[in-house]
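Researcher: Let's do a round of design. I'm pasting the structure tokens now; please hold your answer until I've finished.
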């Protein structure tokens, strides 16, 4: 429902990103997605750009405490992940979603794809909630105070379509 807005949180920070995210929070109705996303935005928005860049890179890129790739979480490097990514690539192209340099199973293009199509791939819908829940549990175990825990909770609430609790808070 608000997957395109939540996807913005996975983009690499820029000088205007915090303001763009604050504006995006206001476009979300009164929903748990807004609560989690606002917590994420508040936390990263209070950081300097350099600190946010370091946090983003440490969380999502270098020796990441969790892997933001849906197919990898579900199938690892097995052949099935390759089939899944090929299907996603075709489906994304059909609705005009460019992965913008990411693999097609990365959360950011996946969320933009969900926002762009009324009929997502059934395989994606089958595995996405479990993959996001696994990512969320992995990050919360490795780094419970990491603001990206809130972004993952917003992701699950928007794409997984079920209530989420992080650190005892909804």
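Researcher: That's everything. Go ahead.
Model: Designed sequence:
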């Amino acid at each position: 429902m608000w997957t395109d807005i939540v996807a913005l949180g996975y983009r690499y920070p820029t000088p205007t990103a915090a303001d763009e995210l604050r504006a995006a929070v206001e476009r979300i109705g009164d929903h748990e997605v807004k609560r989690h996303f606002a917590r994420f935005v508040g936390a990263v928005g209070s950081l300097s750009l350099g600190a946010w860049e370091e946090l983003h890179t440490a969380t999502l890129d270098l020796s990441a405490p969790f892997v933001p790739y849906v197919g990898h979480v579900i199938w690892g490097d097995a052949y099935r992940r390759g089939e899944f990514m090929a299907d996603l690539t075709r489906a994304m192209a059909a609705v005009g979603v460019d992965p913008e340099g990411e693999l097609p199973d990365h959360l950011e293009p996946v969320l933009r794809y969900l926002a762009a199509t009324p009929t997502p791939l059934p395989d994606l819908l089958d595995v996405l909630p479990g993959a996001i829940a696994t990512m969320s549990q992995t990050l919360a175990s490795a780094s419970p105070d990491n603001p990206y825990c809130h972004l993952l909770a917003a992701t699950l609430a928007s794409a997984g379509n079920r209530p989420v609790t992080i650190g005892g808070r909804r």
